[in-house]
Amino acid sequence: MKMMFRVLAHYSSNFVDVDVCSFDVSASSSESVLSNNVSEESNVSFDENDYLGCYKLEEAKRYCSKGWENYIKSMDQKFQGGVEEFRLKLRMYAIEMGFEYKYVRNTKKRVVAYCSNRESEHCGWCVKASFLEYNHFFVITDLVNEHSCHGVVRLQTNKMMGSKIIKSIMLDKLCENPNKKVIDIYHEIKSDYGMEVSYRMAWYGKERARESVLGGDADSYAQLVWFGQKTVESNPDSTIKIEYEPETHRFERMFMCYNAWMKGFQICRLILFIDATFISNKYRGQLISASAKDANQVTYCFYLFRPESGSGRGAERSRIFEGLSLGTCTNDSVTGSGLGWPSLRLFDA
Predict the structure, then answer these.
(1) Using an 8 Å Cβ cutoff, are 326 and 340 in contact?
(2) pTM of the entire structure?
(3) Is 342 helix (H, G, I), strand (E, B) or coil?
(4) Helices 163-176 & 182-193 angle (0-180, nearest 10)
């Protein structure tokens, strides 16, 4: 076949007719006939892909995970991130090299892992790492980096490709674009890393990365009291009310109104709009707002945040007016206003 392509290149021809016939020619004479046409030492440049068209050989794509094969290299290799970094890079290394391993010992001070085919095929691959007290590094103390088992092949679907790895590879991208969609992460992992993961796993990886950048929801709830204190210090005469269960310290609701909002509310039209929206994180809840406009169409808002509970919107609306000192709230109006208004008309958006 190579000789046929070389003949085409030599005569600048695009096609060739081949007649198959049987004749008795010795091996030496056939070689001489072919060598008379085009010799092996001919200076004719030849590239098979130039003539194969749509059947030409494709170059192997280099994925972004190619560098994972260098994560486990030799003894005395140090991991400044401690045992968490070592476990993560060991898993990424195994995914790229195409094998599975089992932990024989897995603690914060020492990790020992062997190839999963150690018992069935007597594979000798193993890695041992320990924690150093004086510098808090995790160091590889023993490494046999050769496999004697069969089936060490990189797979497109790997159960070790979990949310922690997705978090590590998507952390910088989510810092640049926090609004990146889960479906985009799913496609990027498939195209850039050659791995297939489920949509749910991609979502978990994004949530882990978002929590690493912005912090967890539980930490934000824990800082609400600090936030209220600092808000009152920087905005005197503001109203911040946080209610929680006395025994369990579980958050119940929060009311917030800046002093500037209260002053601006005194010159607003006598119409109050109330609206609420649902919060879709795992703690759920509602964000309720009371807003009004002045003569220049400037909007002033007051917010009440609460988790989902049995109390209806009417009870929460009463708390808004109580916090604003607007007087008594009925179904469609407020009378006896603390701001000197005769009455307010209420509209639920």
Answers:
(1) no
(2) 0.61
(3) coil
(4) 110
